[in-house]
Amino acid sequence: MNLSRRLDLSRIGIPGLAALLAGALLPLAFAPVDILPLAVLSPAVLFWLWRDAVPARAAGLGFLFGLGQFGIGVSWVFVAVNEFGGTGAVPAVLLTGLFVTALALYPALVGYLGRRLAPRIGPAGALLLLWPALWTWGEWLRGWLFSGFPWLSLGYSQIDGPLAGWGPIAGVYGMSWVVAFTAGLMAWLVSSPVRQVNGARVAVPILVAAMFWGGAWWADRIEWTSPKGEPLTVSLVQGNLPQETKWDPGAIRERLDTYAGLTRERLGQSDLVVWPENAVTVFYHQVEEEFFDPLERDAAEAGTDIILGLPVLAEDGQHYFTSMMSLGSHRDFYFKQHLVPFGEYVPFESLLRGLIRLFDVPMSSFIPGPEGQRPLLVAGHRAAVSVCYEDAFGSQFARTLQNATLLVNGSNNAWYGDSLAPHQHLQISRMRALETGRPMLRATTNGISALVDARGRLLATSTQFERYVVTHRVQPMTGQTPYGRWRNLPILIWLFAATATALALHRKLFNR
Questions:
Q1: Catalytic residue among 139, 336, 344, 435
Q2: What is the pTM of this model?
Q3: The dihedral of CA 135, 136, 137, 141: what is its sign?
Q4: Domains (ranges, CATH) in the chain?
Q5: Active site includes 336?
Q6: Which alpha helices (H) appear in 125-239, and where do they start and end?
Q7: What is the three-class DSSP state of 458?
Q8: Rounded to an integer, what distance in angstroms lies between the CA atom of residue 437 and that of residue 384?
Q9: Nearest alpha carbon to residue 6 among 59, 64, 61, 63
Q10: What value does the mean pLDDT take over residues 203-228?
Q11: Which of 139, 246, 277, 390 is the catalytic position?
Q12: Does 277 participate in catalysis according to the annotation?
């Protein structure tokens, strides 16, 4: 059966419009709008539409839902491609549309597989077991396939909601499953077969949902990690320099002077100062003696350490890393491991280089750093460092902890202008703090820079599009959360068990 028959977009009518609208509303559950109930209501509408659809039509409904979800939720890709990729509006629309279309295939696949399997079980089995599990499988798959893009997973919307207590235990995908289960329950309760079921059968799944939502309240009161040493005074430097001048040789001195000047104002007052990704836009060896050596002497004399972002030439003299460097009491480097396709490297480079300006922007041939890098030693603590959207990959991020007591992320949000992206990215960074029980120090080029505590709560933030230094006291933490120890393994086992149980059940078990 070819794809056009599987992905049936014809004759969908009002159900198709409902799926598209439900998907378009889902991003409003995330930052900066934060209408949390939509995280449940939007997928509940899709699950309800799926309940009687044939597989091809379920795939079509899922695809339309995905077009709405990602067409609104990651519309900021257009800003990066058009304004800073130099493609022009028409190619930017086409490339963004292609990206959104690829992402929409994930809910389409979930819909198709679910309806292929659902006839073996009743509506309750499909809506309470199969759909929530397949939805979460889809998010997990999207988080690593083809380099991964885990944006807009349902669990992120709950960082300030009642489910936050599950973050240190089951991570973002565990929280996604609870939201999806609740959506399935809601769809089941309003579907006609429920009226044929006795009250006890209705009460059981409601009690299960109440257990998960109430259990999060209990879990949120557990102290998974404990303070390590005294609180540190940390400053985040947000230079707010134009993205257009990032690689302009004439603007390098202004960039260096801006960050150095703002930092010297904090020497002796802050224990640690953090700059964003690529705050320095020349290779380390080009300004080592002229710039870094005197800055390090001043920082060491004042008792302040610095973490800053810059490119570093590899030993072979040909390849280069995007990096974060510690400076002051101890000079060391972290080399970014998870690179951004088309931004930091070009897949199929021999074929794509030169086709459009986006594929030939400066510094777009980075190589990944090695695995197993030690956290940087700063201010007497170890800091697990990530660069830009590396912090979107929770399981990979948790592997870098080792004996770190702090999390540090340097990002360049200037690529996305005044869009949803900086707000969504901050929400993702906060989830990494919640999952690992460590404070997050997040410095960005033009906002939103933020200091986050070990429960994912905001301590202090910058104003966007302003030159800003965020300063606050931060408590380093030690110990391991369940998620920090086991990462995604428990939720994957849970999903496997839920899927297997759904497939093992017969229709009449739920519909006598």
A1: 336
A2: 0.93
A3: positive
A4: 3-223+488-509 (no CATH), 226-480 (3.60.110.10)
A5: yes
A6: 131-142, 167-189, 199-219
A7: strand
A8: 12
A9: 59
A10: 94
A11: 277
A12: yes
